[in-house]
Amino acid sequence: MLETTPLDDWSLALPDGTTLEPERTMWSYEISDREVVSVRRKPQLLVVFIGESTQRVLEVDFSSPARSLLPQLWDPFGLEPRPEQEFSLWRMSPNAMISLDKSLAAQSVPPTSAVLIKLRTPQNLFLELPEPVDDVRLYDDRSQVLRDNDGHVKAASLNQLVLLLTSTTSLDLEFQRCFFMMYTTFASPQTLLRKLLQRFDVPPELAADRFNVQVRVSSVLKFWLENHPQDCEHDLVRQITDFTDTVSEPALANQIRLGIFKRANQLKAGRARPELLHKNYPEPLAKMPKKSPVGTIPTVFDFDELETARQLTLIEFALFDKIELTEFLNLSWSKEKTKHTAANILRMIARANSVSQWVAALVVEPVRVRLRARRFEILIRVAEHLRTLNNFSTLMAFLGGFNNAAVRRLKFTRQLLPKKTAEALESLERLMSTDQSYKAYREALHSCTQPCLPYLGTYLSDLTFIDEGNQDVVSGGLINFGKRALTYRVISEIQQFQLVRYTLMPVPVIQKVVKKLPLQDERSFGSELYDKSMSREPRGAEKVP
Fold first, then answer.
1. Distance of alpha carbon 291 from alpha carbon 285, whole angstroms
2. In angstroms, rounded to a whole number, what is the distance separating the alpha carbons of residues 437 and 61?
3. Rounded to a whole number, what is the distance in angstroms from the first to the last CA of the chain?
4. Residue 153 is inside which H or E element, if any?
């Protein structure tokens, strides 16, 4: 018997998987008299975890065998599909293996529940979080806290950091935000929870401050659950829930329960961080393209340059907005075994490379020099609009295309550019120059009005410099918190640009042209394009057609 759920949650399907549309008649599908039609539940939300904190929220078919879901499980994590012998799928409550031969519904896995992918091979290990070698109980720790001249924490043990985090004499919100953004680089969520519970269990000699301490611990737990829900996997939340049931003070217990409730709501809504802020900017009217002649496929040169820049900005900001701040930790995007934890960063890098290739190919493609120059001029105007929109990311990708060797050598094409256009290109190149560590760009970035789409490359370079130039642990085995604070400042700046979105109107006909750009092998692409460039303007030629 089917469970009692709204009819809209269900659909009919043929044996080949075709879903029957409600508005079509049965005979229009040419169904035979004895054809079997199955009842299927429409896709529902499923929270999928790999490890303790890496999770994605997907829409899956709960009525199909779990094996049929596998293709859509890997891509959100940036992983290549794995043979079945290299992983297993588990329910997280209760803890039980999921059979790939049966549907999730048949195994009583309800929508919005959580499942865990367990990898069986060692080559895709997650970040190995160091557990304390000598796990001194929090109140027994007498180690020193090192500070800089401004009083900021430079280095401390985990115990001392937790004591500072839950201090009853000072509330440092910036330290709290920094700690929770960075703690996974030196401790696991399980270890942190254990330390917070130790802090809550105030010893008799400190009984006079017990209530104040427990208020702070409860507040910190609530902050953790609300602002970093992806850190708290099912077993951890269950431990926090069990602990909350033992808290005798109702106000404190309710505060923690509120954090648990808000975490659950965020995960069900498919958000791994609190909802982003929006500024109430007026939405500009889109410049709609003219209709192309019947039988022709529109190109980017059929559209208004400003509107092309707007649509490119919308597409790339959507990629930027999806980046989780944890993807910037531990240089994950640059390491083979942890790339899957930085899938959105890698997608944005791939997008930038594909835009650069696309721009370069558009310039080189025409056989006649005047058409090449005309295309080059139009693309430079699009780049100018990208600058006006504060879209430094796509602007840098355009400049990468303009400076491709195959484009850069086109002397006759460049000579035909209007003087004003050539000067505009030189100005953009000065702005995004690498001189003095992108000094001109950084000044422009920090003085611009949001919304803004920053160039990701400078941040990745800064994070690499910080990571490779500072030790994780300093003298006496203390955690180098100063290094984490430097990393936090970089990531916080990135976060600020995610908070204000562009209020631009999507134009589907333009997005269809500029959204899915192929990314080719860099070596073969560069070689083929350079050969084409040589055919357009042969070396030593005095003039070209």
1. 18
2. 49
3. 76
4. strand 153-156
Strand 153-156 versus strand 146-147 pairing type: antiparallel
- For the stretch 329-382, pLDDT in tens is 999 999 888 888 899 999 999 999 999 999 999 999 999 999 999 999 999 999
CA atoms within 13 Å, Cβ hemisphere of 99: 9
Residue labelled with tokens 């990629």 = 319
Q: Which residues does residue 38 pair with via DSSP β-bridges, in sequence order?
A: 13
Q: How far is CA 249 from CA 202, 203, 220, 325, in A?
A: 14, 17, 16, 35
Q: At what angle do helices 189-200 and 234-244 cross, to 10 degrees?
A: 10
Which DSSP state fits 108?
A: T
Q: At residue 66, does pLDDT exceed 50?
A: yes
Inter-residue contact 124 to 86 (CB < 8 Å): no
Would you state the structure tokens that stand for residue 156, as one six-digit string? 């401390």
Among 383, 478, 473, 475, smallest CA distance to 426 is for 383
Q: Could you give the angle at which helices 481-498 and 456-469 cross, rounded to 10 degrees?
A: 170
| 407-438 exposure pattern, b = at least 16 Cβ within 10 A, e = fewer | bebbebbbebbeeebbebbeebeebbeeeeeb
- Running DSSP on this structure, what letter comes out for residue 24? S
**Cis omega before residue 451 (within 30°)?**
yes
Phi, psi of 431 (to 5 degrees): -60, -45
Q: Are 288 and 508 in contact (CB under 8 A)?
A: no
pLDDT tens sequence across 139-171:
999 999 999 999 999 999 999 999 999 999 988
Bridge-based pairing of strands 478-480 and 54-60 is: unpaired
Q: What is the pLDDT of residues 100-136, one digit of tens each?
A: 888 888 888 887 777 777 765 333 333 444 554 457 8
Residue that is written with structure tokens 């039609």 in the block: 37
- The DSSP symbol for 419 reads H
Chain centroid to CA 478: 31
